[in-house]
Amino acid sequence: MAYVLQIDFKMLGPFGDEMAEAFSDLAKSINEEEGFMWKIWTESPETNEAGGIYIFETKETAEKYLDMHSKRLAGFGITDINVKIFAINEQLTKITHGPLN
């Protein structure tokens, strides 16, 4: 069963094209994480927030990534993060065209 990992936190930027340029190496490295399937990057310059919606193959791989990523964010000075992990109902997600492959 696949799992969603939702993370968001306060961040003063960069956003948009600058964020894409600044974090492209990080994005490439995430592709190598165990159990990682895909990520949607989120940002709100109006509220100074950023984060992402991740899909992992198992709850264990989502939790393992969260542990590592929390430490990485702390290294950037970001310690107040909001996190949720949800199981995905794959049958309903397929009906609504959710990409689980």
TrEMBL record:
<protein>
    <submittedName>
        <fullName>Monooxygenase</fullName>
    </submittedName>
</protein>
<dbReference type="GO" id="GO:0004497">
    <property type="term" value="F:monooxygenase activity"/>
</dbReference>
<dbReference type="InterPro" id="IPR014910">
    <property type="entry name" value="YdhR"/>
</dbReference>
<dbReference type="InterPro" id="IPR011008">
    <property type="entry name" value="Dimeric_a/b-barrel"/>
</dbReference>
<dbReference type="Pfam" id="PF08803">
    <property type="entry name" value="ydhR"/>
</dbReference>
<keyword id="KW-0560">Oxidoreductase</keyword>
<keyword id="KW-0503">Monooxygenase</keyword>
